[in-house]
Amino acid sequence: MLLAAAGSKLQIPDAVYRFCVFMLLMRIGLEGGMEIRGGDLSAMLMPALIAAGIGCLIVYGGRLVLAALPGVRTDDAIATAGLFGAVSASTLAVAMVLLEEQGEYFEAWVPALYPFMDIPALILAIVLANVHLARRKGTERERVEIWPIVRDSLRGSALSALLLGLALGLLARPETVFEGFYDPLFKGFLSVLMLTMGLEAYARLHELRKVAQWYAVYAAVAPLVHGLLAFGLGYVAHLLTGFSPGGVILLAVMAGSSSDISGPPTLRAGIPSANPSAYIGSSTSIGTPVAIVIGIPLYIGLANILFDS
Fold first, then answer.
1. Domain spanning 12-308 has what CATH number?
2. Which of 41-50, 117-126, 260-269 has the lowest mean pLDDT?
3. DSSP labels for 44-64?
């Protein structure tokens, strides 16, 4: 962000950015698939249900809070809440690297909770927006088709890469290619992705100035509220099922993140009346930096206090 503010002309080609995202998600998916193949599926049940519930709660709560603020249109509020209810793959990747460097164990299937939170959040946001628009037009009984939303979400580049990695980890024997190719390159690709996100975050600040300042307030506060909520529910799962402290941290990170890959195009198509400057600007320029710089260290610190005591 400082580099962009200084007027640097540095640009990361979009194709390179997308390839880095693909590599990161393939690596996460492969490791998750290999772990699920030899793991206990029943251990995933409660965290998966919590992830889905949190995604929906973030969307519905955010819709109520934002729409009640002055100068905020309801469809913009719903789209913004939907983006914050969905998951940022890059923020998740940053948290995984930090935990691995600190030697903090987490179940390798935890990143596979990504779609359990991401898809319900995006679906609920689009459904709420369609219901709102239908009521405004006086056609409240107009039916909202759910399957096309699910299909488009699953076809998105981010979820497709993650699901492909999961499938290969489950059905193939990718240990050799994982250890020799995907895993060694993980941190290098992540550094390129973070550089790109910083440049994009600064560029989006200009867009955020065009809309109500309440979006900036929401983007600064919501990630931490969402993350702490997920941390608390994850702690309950830890007490009931033995869910690892690292898993609790990653669940909080997913809830505190806002989608930067799959969410924006899904919401552009599903809620075309919403202003992208509102939901993308608030997410990219403020939400993601807050989630990474403040959120991740906060959850790790809480885990050190709670689980070491």
1. 1.20.1530
2. 260-269
3. HHHHHHHHHHHHHHHHHHHHH
